[in-house]
């Protein structure tokens, strides 16, 4: 039997539908507004205060990551910002990402992604150390990491490091170990004035809010003392997608969704490590 809806029920259903339409419309409008803000930043070449001290000096910068694809999934807004302004960016990847036996392939994929992200191959170093193998539950020696970082800094005259924060965005133990390795270097080896920055981890709602998070990241960065936190918009989000696509072994459906909806595709917040 067909059920007849009363006028009250019909009105209620209509109100519910209208509410959902308003929510979806608001979602689309904010998404488009966020992308427009990113596009405006790229065409206007807007300058963040990050590394903008009024001098034309270019920096030698070391990005320290744990696995191939970390650079594209998490740090591409920062990388695009630095390379577009002429800074010399080096990548130090602490493993080949061999947890699933695809380390050789993943190493080559990182070289391809680095080319897309405008980092010369002679400025990319990927380690395959027996004590630094990819995997959950595989704790890396922080002292060993600090020694490797020190060697890389001495070899290239590095004057600034960028890496994960203590949570490591996804909470992966190798990301956190890399952070602790950098901290070990700063504590025991680096000059007091040496500059280091960490990528701020966000809660899960912000993490998967796509370009929406550019508004929150910008607001929160302004709450910190001047010069201690910077919000960097990705001026080339399409380049970030293309870079991640070079990691063919990892470019499965759920990572495509991740790159689309992850706030780290559109914005990075960097905090200075004391």
User: How many distinct helices?
Assistant: 10
Please estimate the helix content: 40-55%
How many beta-strand elements? Answer: 7
Strands in their spatial order, largest beta sheet: 3-2-1-4-5-7-6
> How do the SSEs run, as a string of H and E?
HEHHEHEHEHEHHEHHE
Overall mean pLDDT stands at 87
Strand content: 5-15%
Largest sheet: 7 strands, mixed
Measured on Cα atoms, how large is the radius of gyration? 21 Å
First CA to last CA: what distance?
Answer: 71 Å
Description:
- With 274 residues, the chain is an alpha/beta fold.
- It is built from ten helices and seven strands.
- It has a seven-stranded mixed β-sheet, sandwiched between helices.
- β2, α4 and β3 (124-126) form a beta-alpha-beta unit.
- The termini are far apart.
- The model is unreliable at 42-47 (pLDDT under 50).
Quick overview:
The chain has 274 residues and is an alpha/beta fold. It contains ten helices and seven strands.
SSE blueprint and pairings:
Layout lengths: L6 H37 L16 E6 L4 H5 L1 H9 L3 E6 L9 H14 L7 E3 L15 H15 L3 E5 L8 H16 L6 E5 L4 H4 L5 H10 L6 E5 L3 H9 L7 H9 L5 E6 L2
Parallel strand pairs: 1-2, 1-4, 2-3, 4-5
Antiparallel strand pairs: 5-7, 6-7
Helix pairs in contact: 4-9, 5-6
């Amino acid at each position: 039997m067909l059920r007849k809806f009363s006028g009250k029920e019909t009105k209620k259903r209509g109100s519910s539908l209208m509410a959902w339409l308003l929510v979806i419309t608001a979602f689309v409008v904010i998404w488009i507004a966020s992308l427009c803000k990113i596009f405006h930043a790229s065409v206007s070449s807007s300058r963040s205060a990050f590394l903008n001290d009024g001098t034309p000096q270019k920096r030698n910068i070391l990005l320290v990551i744990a696995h191939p694809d970390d650079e594209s999934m998490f740090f591409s807004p920062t990388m695009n910002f630095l390379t577009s302004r002429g800074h010399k960016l080096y990548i130090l990847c602490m493993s080949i990402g061999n947890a699933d036996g695809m380390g050789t392939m993943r190493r080559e994929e990182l070289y391809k992604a680095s080319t897309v992200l405008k980092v010369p191959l002679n400025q990319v170093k990927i380690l395959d150390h027996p004590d630094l193998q990819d995997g959950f539950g595989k704790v890396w020696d922080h002292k060993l990491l600090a020694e490797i970082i020190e060697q890389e800094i001495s070899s290239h005259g590095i004057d600034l490091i960028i890496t994960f924060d203590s949570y490591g965005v996804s909470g992966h133990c190798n990301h956190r170990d890399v952070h602790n390795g950098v901290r070990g270097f700063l504590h025991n080896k680096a000059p007091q004035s040496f500059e280091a920055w960490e990528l701020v981890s966000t809660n899960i709602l912000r993490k998967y809010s796509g370009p929406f998070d550019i508004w929150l990241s910008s607001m929160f960065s302004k709450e910190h003392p001047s010069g201690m936190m910077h919000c960097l918009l990705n001026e080339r989000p399409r380049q970030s997608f293309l870079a991640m696509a070079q990691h063919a072994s990892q470019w499965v459906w759920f990572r495509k969704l991740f790159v689309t909806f992850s706030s780290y595709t559109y914005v990075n917040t960097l905090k200075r490590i004391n």
